[in-house]
Design goal:
Pdz3 Domain, 6-stranded antiparallel β-barrel, Thrombin, subunit H, 7-stranded antiparallel beta sheet
Length: 382
């Protein structure tokens, strides 16, 4: 009888212990063993080490108020004409002979934006804004107007430099476009649809973007892509970081309608600075040349040529007498680095070359027949 009571008592104790998570044989937590609990707990996710600085949160008031006065309205007049049947200034002649076929000249007007980069009146805009203009008029944010002269253009980067006769103007400091980070806040300032001094905000969506080259003309493209709203009239305006520095010149959009569809592109300030320096000095751009045609590297090419690296840019052909040929580079060489910077696509290499000047000596690391070598190349002028 006592043994029966003892058995019942032990059963009750064991049941209570299991339900309460008391240590019985293995340590229990909420009815589960500690080892089982550890096994079911997922590992902490691996997170990138992203540093967020104080003041980096989206407050655009300082940047907007600092930069807005340096963005100007650009009005252009373009002379054009067409053949057709036109009346004369003599109603009697028109009555008897009717309209006569001939060529008549007209004046068309367009507009865009520009950015004051110096207090003495140098203005950066897009080449396509002022192309073929017979007259260029600049209106400042305080409504003062000036006639601008054209210093020079660079169609390859779609940059043009203008000059107005004034001093003490509210220019904008130029920032480091290379230091931009994906997701960083930026603002676009310009005059879309003639709405002057319009400010929109977005983030850096991508860097180093290129566009399809339908006309086959030489271009240097490494666009900053943002989702700040840009529309017709914004061209030539400023892309500004939260410190109020110029990091790009707004240039184009991708759209099926001609209006903003979520994608806008700006020429990086680093490229703009290089172009402006040449235009101020000589009125034209001294563009360096490596003298190669290139192919995007991929796994099929790597296997076919028995290369060890999947990265780099493959030389398809060297131009006769070019900097590359003189340095000993040849068809089939795989360029890995350009003066210490890794390159993985032709566009990136073109941009790196364009940042230099004719006569600069650069080190190029390349792979040939499975062997990696380095050669010094003296860039020539394109």
């Amino acid at each position: 009888m006592k043994q029966s009571h003892l058995t019942i008592l032990l059963s009750v104790i064991l049941s209570v212990a299991a339900s309460c998570g008391v240590l019985v044989g293995d340590r229990m937590i909420n009815g589960k063993s500690e080892t089982a609990e550890k096994a079911e707990t997922p590992a902490d996710p691996v997170r990138p080490n992203v540093q967020i600085q104080p003041g980096s949160y989206p407050d655009f008031t300082y940047a907007a108020e600092t930069a807005v006065d340096a963005v100007v309205y650009v009005k252009v007049t373009v002379k054009t004409g067409a053949y057709g049947y036109y009346g004369s200034d003599d109603p009697l002649f028109d009555f008897f002979f009717g309209p006569q076929r001939g060529y008549r000249e007209f004046e068309a007007q367009g507009s865009g934006s520009g950015v004051l980069i110096s207090p003495d009146g140098y203005i950066v805009t897009n080449n396509h804004v002022i192309e073929n203009a017979s007259k260029i008029e600049i209106t400042l944010n305080d409504n003062r107007s000036f006639t601008a002269s054209l210093v020079g253009t660079d169609p390859a980067t779609d940059i043009a430099l203008l000059k107005i006769d004034a001093s003490g103007l509210p220019s904008i400091p130029v920032g480091d476009s290379d230091a931009l980070r994906l997701g960083e806040w930026v603002i676009a300032i310009g005059s879309p649809f003639d709405l002057r001094s319009t400010i929109t905000a977005g983030i850096v969506s991508a860097k180093g973007r290129t566009m399809p080259n339908y006309d086959g003309k030489f271009r240097v493209e490494s666009f900053i892509q943002t989702d700040a709203a840009v529309n017709p009239g914004n061209s030539g305006g400023a892309l500004v970081n939260t410190a109020g520095e110029l990091v790009g010149i707004n240039t184009s959009i991708v759209s099926n309608t001609g209006s903003y569809a979520g994608y806008s592109f700006a020429v990086p300030a680093k490229i703009v600075t290089r172009i402006v320096s040449d235009l101020i000095t000589d009125g034209r751009v001294h563009r360096p040349s490596l003298g190669v045609s290139m192919v995007q590297m991929n796994e099929n090419i790597r296997q076919e040529l028995k290369l060890s690296s999947e990265n780099g840019v493959l030389i398809y052909e060297t131009v006769s007498g070019s900097a590359a040929q003189k340095a000993g580079l040849q068809r089939g060489d795989l360029i890995l680095t350009f003066d210490g910077t890794s390159v993985n696509d032709p566009s990136a290499l073109r941009v790196l070359v364009n940042e230099r000047r004719p006569g600069d000596v650069v080190a190029i690391e390349y792979e040939r027949s499975g062997k990696v070598e380095t050669v010094e190349v003296t860039l020539t002028e394109l």
